[in-house]
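Consortium newsletter contribution from the modelling node. Members have asked for a concrete example of what our holo predictions look like. Here is one, prepared for the MTE complex that several groups have been discussing at recent meetings.
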Amino acid sequence: MTPRILLAALLLIGAAGTSAGAACPGGVSSSLSVTGEVMRPTVFNLAKLQKLPVAQENVTYFAAGSVVSESFTGALLWDLLNNSPVGGIVTDPTVKNDILHKIIIVTGSDCYQSVFGAGEVDPFFGGNQIMVAYATGGQSLGQNGFARIVAPVDKAGGRFVSNIVSIDVEDAGSYQGKPPR
Ligand SMILES: Nc1nc2c(c(=O)[nH]1)N[C@H]1C(S)=C(S)[C@@H](COP(=O)(O)O)O[C@H]1N2
Ligand SMILES: [Mo]
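And here is the predicted structure:
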């Protein structure tokens, strides 16, 4: 390899290395896709989210060391996954409590991510009223996108993924045997 070709090859490798960055441009989200082990994968915009039963939550949490109190309006994550149009998480009735195997991966436009256990939000188990919020104080969420997670029992805002672009449901079993990242 001539030095020039070697340089070109290195630049290409470098570009490939930054392609994850290109997939996470950040910015204000205006739709999110629900994918993975659900009955009907669905793309939601604000109007579609507003068709789900409306939930209201007053939460107080730490954000970067300061206490924030906000009144959020949105849909419960459980309702979003189980009501029409998504219609539920796919489970295998022959597997004991298969719902407890399911992982809900929420991703923001900047690729900020948090996972939630289906058992944590299932009203029969944890019943945590985790919300996909689309308004705060009666206003849209502005720079936080059209939708963000609100986890009312959390102490800090780290799981409040803003600018949601995807909610992906996966099975813990599919990760077994994979090397840790
Ligand atoms: N998409 C995205 N969501 C995010 C973050 C982020 O970096 N990207 N930071 C989180 C953290 S660490 C906190 S404390 C809260 C801060 O939210 P607030 O400034 O609106 O209170 O947002 C959370 N949601
Ligand atoms: Mo934070």
